[in-house]
Amino acid sequence: MTAQSIFAHDFLQKAVGDDSSVLEMRETLDALHSLVDALKQQPAIHELTYPHARPIARLALGDCEMPPVQSAVNAIREAKGLTKHLAWNHFTDLVLKVYFSPADFNEAEFIIVNAGLECLYMDLSVNKATAAPLKEEYAKMGTLCTSNLETALANLPLHLPATMDMIVALLFGAYHAMEVAKPSLAWTLNTASAQLCQTLGYHRIASVRSGNPDDEDYKVFLFWSVYFVDKSLSLRLGRPSTISDYDITVPYPSSASKMHGALMSYFCLWVIVSRIQGKTYELLYSPEALSQSSSVREGRARGLAAELQQVTDRTQETHAQYLESAIEAVGQNTMDFFNVSDEVLRLSLLTIIYRAVPSPPGSSTTFSTECIGAARATLKRHEDCMAIMAKDGYYLFPMYMNWTILFAPFVPFIVIFCQVMETSDATDLARLQGFVASIQDAKEFTEASARLCRLFQVLYNVAFRYVEMRNSSQQTGQAQASQEMDRYLTALGFPSAGQSSEGGPDGSDQLPMGGGGSGGDEGMTSTGSGVVPLNQMLWMGNASQLEDWFYSNQQMMGLVEDDDSFLQ
């Protein structure tokens, strides 16, 4: 309708021109011009209102306690270099509005201010340059802002105003949810933000254009920030993405942007990786993908692995162009941390991609060589990242846990766990032990990190005891214990020991009937050297088992998010 009205307006404009004989058409032309202007506005904004709704009193955010104004000013002054995702002028204007015009600010502005101040306070509370007496005060003020932020987010209405500030507020809320290891909550907030982006047309180049380059850059940056979270959490939670790639016409963030060229170059790489994360769920683990043959999924997996390699190559090119200036801005150790933690994330993603590649017929292991290799490489780079963080007293550890280990399905540990259960490989068992030992300090930071540590500790203990039983001589009660352990593993989504790694008799994806054992043995038998599986310990060749494996991983990671889980 908008395009048709514009065409009619332009046609009449040319026809009428300055001819005095048709000046009586001017009124009609002006009316059509007004119609065109009206249609250029986003109609969905007005569709999201109820014409007969009566306003009711909402939570009085103005009554919430804020940090002393001088404290907030000092924090902003101290952290001017930490621009995060807001222009400082706009942020300071919002701070002044919240502090000095409590009757005028809205929910989005209150959320932005408290999210921004929380971030500044928390950064300053762990910064080595901050004086010791101030660290405790900054942490206290940060906690106060956290309380305000969560209060405002928890009381947001279902229908939200389609404004740029509300998109920023919801995005900050999603970031905060990830910081406290609540990816499901982050998904809810980010989905609302994505809907507002689409309502305002931030995903379409024609809607973003305003004649103001700074405004255009910021809208594009906001959209891709929302996209980044959406695609990443799609794989993390096993849900279809909210934003469809075929519906996007705005370009990727560019280093030519005025919003910090180096930052935009690295941010673009994160966006591309998130796109691959979304495609990994869609092409390998969604119900549609699992309905395909193994050969189709394998082809898709190898294509995604090639895309991820292109990102690695592009990362090296970006380093060559911007690494020196980035090191000058944030320091050598911090930049090393970002580089290696990004590599850990990419290798973890590569592991889950290669998980969809079946091992060749006759292979002695369930997982493909590429999957096992990627998992081992991930754990190795994790060790390197821990060594880097140790140089600065692990103050970056919470960021690493929340945005690398917990932000994506961290399957390398599970893959190596399964490999140990299948092969009793002592070197891989040592890798599990090393990983668990390396994150013991997580207990000092967040409850979610502590729960993750306890989860992996339980799995390591299982692997250790299982290998111990297999390598020792048969003793009274050991066979029964192994059978009980096998039942527990099956309940966790690890298929029973009697399942073959080669699928059905014809090599298809059909689950073999009857397993390899009888009664309660689940395919286990005893020899003089201990408990040995009749076939493969963890067969996962067919689509249903791949699905079970994927969603069992989701459920186990969900325990980290659950405040009432047994991991307390």
UniProtKB/TrEMBL annotation:
Transmembrane feature ranges: 400-421
Q: Where is the composition biased (Gly residues)?
A: 513-522
Q: What CDD domains does this protein map onto?
A: fungal_TF_MHR
Question: Where do the Xylanolytic transcriptional activator regulatory domain residues begin and end?
Answer: 186-259
Q: Extract one GO BP annotation from the record.
A: DNA-templated transcription
The answer to whether UniProt assigns keyword Chaperone to this entry is: no
Does the keyword Aminoacyl-tRNA synthetase feature in the UniProt annotation? no
* Listed Pfam families: Fungal_trans
The identity of this protein, by name, is: Fungal specific transcription factor
Region (Disordered) spans which residues? 497-527
List the keywords (alphabetical): Membrane, Nucleus, Transmembrane, Transmembrane helix
One annotated GO molecular function is: zinc ion binding
